[in-house]
Amino acid sequence: MQADGNNLSGSYLMSGGKKKTLKMWLTSTDHKIIGLMYLYAILVFFLVGAVLGILMRTELIKPGQDIMNPQAYNGMFTVHGVIMIFLVVIPGLAAVFGNLFMPIQIGARDVAFPKLNLMSWYIYIVGAILAIISQFARDGAPDTGWTFYAPYSTSSGTNVVFGVFAAFVLGFSSILTGLNFIVTIHRMRAPGMTWFRMPLFPWSLYATAWIQVLATPIVGITLLMIIAERWFKIGFFDPALGGDPILYQHLFWIYSHPAVYIMILPAMGVITEIIPTFAQKRVFGYKAIAISSLAIAGVGYLVWGHHMYTSGMSDFSRIFFSLLTFIVAVPSAIKVFNWISTLYKGSIDLKPPLLYALAFMFLFMIGGLTGLILGSLGTDVHVHDTAFVVAHFHYIIFGGMGFAFFAAMHYWFPKIYGRMYNIRWANISFVFTIVGFNLLYFPLFVIGLQGMPRRYFDYLEQFQLGHFLSTMGAYVLGIGITMMIYNLAKGARTGDPAPMNPWGGKTLEWTISSPPTTENFDEIPTITEQPYNYE
Amino acid sequence: MSQEHSGHTEHRDDIGSKMGMWIFIFTELLLFGGLFLVYAVYRNQYSEDFHIAASQLNTFLGTLNTIILLVSSMTVAMSVTAIQKNDHKLSFRLLLITLLLALAFLVNKYFEYSAKIHHDIYPGSDLVTNLKHGQTLFFGLYFFMTALHGFHIIVGMILLSVIAYKVKKGKINSEDHVLLENGGLYWHLVDLIWIFLFPLLYLIS
Amino acid sequence: MEQEEKHITSYSFLAKILVVLLALTAVSVAVTWINVGPLTIALALFIATVKSLGVLIWFMHLKYEKPMFTVMVAGVFVLYAVIIVITFFDYWFR
Q: What span, in angstroms and rounded, lies between the C-alpha atoms of A449 and A415?
């Protein structure tokens, strides 16, 4: 390791002085290598999903059929959802940055079950392959939407079984990762690192892991029920046999609502790491953030019916879910106050990670506040299943988790690769990304309110302008993301060597070399202070 | 804990290992939990029909299977006691008995299923789909839940066989037997699920 | 880290637990012959719950593990119960 903490030659990426071979990568149980394998796989699937999105937006640039027929469009929004949700956003931050940095942040050399960790990645890949096969196998791509609602999913003539089974397998990967993280955080914290001396990113991963472990099995069994309906006419969701399609929705959303907290909690954890570093100030309300993560995870289990207000549920049920939905907004808002308070009177350094973190706060707030419009019964009836919903969840998932992912990438990049990217190009791609993002999604709020339905291949003339602007936004965003990825890829290969702590962070990963050695620490540290101990 | 600097540091953490198994058990409980939820919803709606359909099930075989699993839970727990007392022979034999009991369970289920199928009672059959709604759903639940449970019995048997082999070879011993404890936990889970399946399917007539 | 002193459950104690579980099973079967109407399912579930506690606490050794394990197990059952109740907010009041 060099004097400034750079360690390109002896890092976890090297073996015996040379770069690790592909075989070493594919058989490594090192959490950092596994984290990168997830990163590259997720990047590929994100790009596939993004291209699908751009194709859909291109189809919607004007009314009528432009580049694809209706069946193809239905298949496209289905697989776009399946890829983005199950292959990108749910594993996303936890599998990549959780794997890369959680053990280091708690002072451990690896996770509790390294071999299981590698197996999780392989299970993920199998699930991904099944999802891809579902696109091309003989009955054609599933056209049910990623939500696979009965009764259409039990009768559609497309490859629903493949699609549903892919999601089942991917759920397994998620469960095993969550299991691994829970045990790691319980058992492998460094001496002196009590729960309330642990940084907030591991806290968010802990809350997330419990959701992964407890919610995923329910969608797992539900997906198996879909297969049982299709193959054996089991009748659970078939009114002709006495079943109730709404029960499918209950079972599906009992998982899929907590799933969005799987997406957003680690994102909030990332932001909570970045803000103190670039304000050079202690996190405001450390305990509040830690506890609110658990509160979000807990209360998040009780709100699933807000996806079902118009389905035919009882009134009592709808009122209950609406009330709980407003309650769960509170701990999320608490975090926003804490971040802003941390920035207040801090020594602000407007580097790319902070730019993306600030963008996150802005986009997350728009997503969250529009979520309240959807969460309130009366207004939801008007906007349910419109483009308003599409805009809401893209703001909160893409604007939230996605931008947090970009922020994390730009923050931890020098630590991962031991090199720095070009800051100016990072800033330029940021501008394209944020402008493109808002141009793509904001018009959808407007036309949604005006009545534009979601998942529609065609539309009335009056929505043309909104759709056109949105499609332009997609292209601008596409340019921004392409620039960002190119800049990062170039930096990884030929960027200037990075020092140990380029940003002045206070968590443990900034005390080891850039990149780290395989063992992470020469000696496991003993922790004696609160985290984020800026002067 | 030994610290090795070449390659990866191995560490042994029995409590962590056990915690991992418990968490996996939680996932299995919730997996079946989804089915129990479906059961609850439809039983609430079609209680009379559930009662009628359940009378078609063989309560004797169901009770026998319950007894078999409870005994097998005891034998696997005893095999842990045996290994803690360094009695490899007894531990191995108790595991064999557990496996035999598991096999007996599956044999009973085979008789149950074949009798049902012989009478045209299976999911998707003309007979079942033309029954009253609650009865159709009851049989759907019966087959799905017991088949999924049976699958877990098979997985448990494979697991316990591997563990039994390791006990014989001494790889699992009085100093290091968390694998046996974890295998036992999995087996108890299979028993737990049946403890709830049994009354809900067989004892509501 | 040193592995902790393990509590060893005696064979006879395990056999006693089994006897209790079998007795409870007999009770739940016998009860079906008595018609208690809507109570049937409640009683059956109650007995099943008692049996499962026996398996959890003694066969699965929860009594002798760290308290954290019991907290987790209890938490999972509570969460599951809450989910069922909330689902029934729909079905009870339709």
A: 45
Could you say which of C8, C25, C72 has the minimum Cβ distance to residue B84?
C8
Give the residue-averaged pLDDT of B66-89: 97
Q: Which of A112, A243, A519 sits opposite B16 (nearest CB)?
A: A112
Rg over CA atoms, chain A: 23
- pLDDT tens column, A431-464: 999 999 999 999 999 999 999 999 999 999 999 9
CA-to-CA distance for A451 and A387, rounded, in angstroms?
A: 8
- How far apart CA A254 and CA A267 sit, in angstroms, is 21
CA atoms of A229 and A479, how far apart (whole Å): 44
The domains of chain C are located at 10-60, 65-94
Q: Is the pLDDT of residue B7 over 50?
A: no
CATH code of the domain in which A54 resides: 1.20.210.10
Distance set, CA A527 to CA A504, A509, A520 (Å) = 19, 13, 16
> Is A424 exposed, middle or buried, given 0-12, 13-18 or 19+ CB atoms closer than 10 A?
exposed
The answer to the question of residue B163 being in a domain is yes
CB A92 within 8 A of CB A407: no
Selecting from A29, A109, A235 the residue whose C-beta is nearest the C-beta of B137 gives A235
B153: CATH: 1.20.120.80
Residue A75: name the closest of A9, A158, A191, A167 by CA. A158
What mean pLDDT value characterizes chain A?
96
Closest CA to B203 of B51, B44, B49: B51
Which of C12, C47, C55 best probes binding to B when mutated, by most B CB atoms within 10 angstroms? C55
Helix (H) or strand (E) holding A499: none
CB atoms A235 and B15 under 8 Å: no
Instruction: In whole angstroms, give the CA distance from residue A355 to residue A368.
Output: 20
Residue C43 CB neighbours (<10 A): 18
CA-CA distance, C31 to B163, in Å (whole number)?
39
How many structural domains does chain A have?
1
Angstrom distance (rounded) from CA A444 to CA B71: 62
Q: Domain tally for chain B?
A: 1
ipTM: 0.95
Q: C90 contacts in A (CB within 8 Å)?
A: 246, 250, 305, 313-314, 317
pLDDT, position C41: 79
Instruction: Render chain B in DSSP notation, one character per residue.
Output: -----SSPPP---HHHHHHHHHHHHHHHHHHHHHHHHHHHHHHHH-HHHHHHHHTTS-HHHHHHHHHHHHHHHHHHHHHHHHHHTT-HHHHHHHHHHHHHHHHHHHHHHHHHHHHHHHTT-STT-HHHHTS-HHHHHHHHHHHHHHHHHHHHHHHHHHHHHHHHHHHHHTSS-SS--HHHHHHHHHHHHHHHHHHHHHHHHHS--
d(CA A420, CA A488): 8
In the 8-state DSSP scheme, what is residue A3?
Answer: T
The reply to whether residue C45 touches residue B181, judged by beta carbons under 8 angstroms, is no
The residue ranking higher by pLDDT, A1 or A427, is A427
Q: Is A124 a member of any domain?
A: yes
CA-CA distance, A254 to A321, in Å (whole number)? Answer: 12
d(CA B9, CA A21): 21
- On whether residue A6 sits in a domain, the answer given is no
Owning domain of residue B167: 31-202
The answer to whether the beta carbons of residues A123 and A172 sit under 8 Å apart is yes
Residue (of A203, A161, A166) closest to A181 by Cα position: A203
